[in-house]
Design brief:
Structural class: alpha+beta
Radius of gyration: 17 Å
Shape: globular
Helix content: 25-40%
Amino acid sequence: MTGRQTMLELSAEISAQLGTGDAAFDRIFQLTGQEFRNREGRETLRVEIGGEYYFLKRHCGYGWKFILKTLLTGGFPRISARTEQEAIQRCQKAGILTVEVVGCGERGRNPATRQSFLLMRELRGCRDLEELCQTWPTQPPAPKFRHA
């Protein structure tokens, strides 16, 4: 470990492809692929590792200005991919099928410059939730379906 505090958890398949430790963290942060979202220090990419596709959510540090603005407007700044990892774990505990996390990491003590990521196996044969809910404002589903 270097002077930075690093947490890294990788599945065996990802470790076999990218290694371990700070070098693996660096390799994951350098991955490129199809960009799905990129704003305010966060980006979501579809990446290929060893012939398989994954989604990488990368948080690159938000800066103190963003953190203070969020706090002053009554919000809680989500400055790490850990928030989403915890949400996925709660869904799994509740028996809700969701993505499979194959890697996560966080590096840095300073919340304004902290780097983190979440690496998930690509879902196939699923309907996108955004697409599913797109018509709900004008054509709401049955309450039983929405609750499920």
